[in-house]
Amino acid sequence: MTAKSLLTTLLPLVSDLSRELPEGERYRRLLEAMRALLPCDAAALLRIDGEWLVPLAVDGLSTDTLGRRFKISEHPRFEALLSSPGPTRFAADSELPDPYDGLVDGLHEHLEVHDCMGCPLFIDERPWGLLTLDALDPQRFEPIELDALQAFASLAAATVNAAERIERLANRAEDEHQRAEVYRQASGQQNREMIGQSKALKRLVEEIDLVGSSDLTVLITGETGVGKELVAQAIHAASARAEKPIISLNCAALPDTLVESELFGHVRGAFTGATNDRRGKFELANGGTLFLDEVGELSLTVQAKLLRVLQSGQLQRLGSDKEHQVNVRLIAATNRDLAEEVRSGRYRADFYHRLSVYPLLVPALRDRGRDVLLLSGYFLEQNRSRMGLNSLRLSSDAQAALLAYDWPGNVRELEHLIGRSALKALGHCKERPKILTLSAADLDLPYGNVEAVPEQPAGAAVALVSGDLREATENYQRQLISACLERHHDNWASAARELGLDRANLGRMAKRLGMK
């Protein structure tokens, strides 16, 4: 590496420091320049987020890597890189497991990363993150290249610093609440993170930022499993109430006789078993946010009492005449069509309009494109950690299967699928592998193996796989639903239970497939 080639590589990045670029593009150019300077098979930029490392940009690694969250204490190579003041190159025979084993893009066999080096990034003399380079050739990197990496790391730190300064300048026009939310997101809170890069998710995040800074009542709608509670948490975190509690209640999990007590509290002797005074969810959430999930399940009686509290801010505990004043922001969620419930007389119109001041629709997973791979990466890393594996990855046919599937159960279904498939795949291994790869067969999605469909005549199987993958998937779903309905004599509720779906989701799927 000559001084001239180093200068040629770095000059465009120096020029970028004064330009306003999207964060993702700025970091992509950074990695592209690093791979030109130090040829390798994969590179990544990761930011420290508490006890985690969060990938901001990757080049040469599988797409799902961007969705992974690496717990530093579980990855000794990352620990070693962060503990060093400068670049570190690991020996080819190092016994420390590589976090990227099996994740190099385009490889289908179990070929582990063999040459690895990285460098910590410091902003204002504080550790900010890591640059990592990996090569499949164990002799790719030479000791002299550590100096080049150190020089590049200094420029990378300047790039990151510039990006953050530009972002801060852009946020100066925002009010105090919005700036507080930007700071909270920068500091990171794992349980509130919304993973994805699709336009649908970005629009949702923009709406969350918009309504979060207000005090409006929000009605979150969407299919089962899309993450409505996560959206509610994000709205609360974006609000001026973020330092106060957010209290949740699943309205479908309690009978009517207990819902009022849970919401408003009770005094001793109010009913059998009420041995002490007890505050309800409204009082617990005072000053903060109350999240009512499955609000479509509330009875008309409870709706009327809730409406009074929302309008006046005053409530009475069960068995008491004393008024309690509360200041609560309400966020509600449902997978029902409440407007239709109002028209049919099963829901109060005044309560519905009080809830839906700001309606917010959470997109279904099938409408989020390649976000399914990023979310898969997040769940893969969670399961890798729980199962004590060095690496847990998806094969190319598994990725294609995930992208083609319709996801009636949405993100929750994906989470359960990854966990279940990983456990089953590990159980089929005679010896514990270093790298566990999930194939399409391991995922066992409905369209995955036509020959495995019971009592399927050969002609039907040929018809099923003709055409493109989505058409084949929809044909299979129609056949599966029709057969299930026939077994249950057109009882949709029973069919939904057998198929493991919510009744409303099955109805929507059938309608989309042209079955009703």
UniProtKB/TrEMBL annotation:
InterPro entries: AAA+_ATPase, AAA_lid_NorR, GAF, GAF-like_dom_sf, Homeodomain-like_sf, HTH_Fis, P-loop_NTPase, Sigma_54_int. Keywords: ATP-binding, Coiled coil, DNA-binding, Nucleotide-binding, Transcription, Transcription regulation. Residues 194-423 form the Sigma-54 factor interaction domain. It comes from the Bacteria. Residues 156-186 form a coiled coil. SUPFAM superfamilies: GAF domain-like (SSF55781), Homeodomain-like (SSF46689), P-loop containing nucleoside triphosphate hydrolases (SSF52540). PANTHER family: ANAEROBIC NITRIC OXIDE REDUCTASE TRANSCRIPTION REGULATOR NORR (PTHR32071:SF35), TRANSCRIPTIONAL REGULATORY PROTEIN (PTHR32071). This is Nitric oxide reductase transcriptional regulator NorR. The gene is norR.
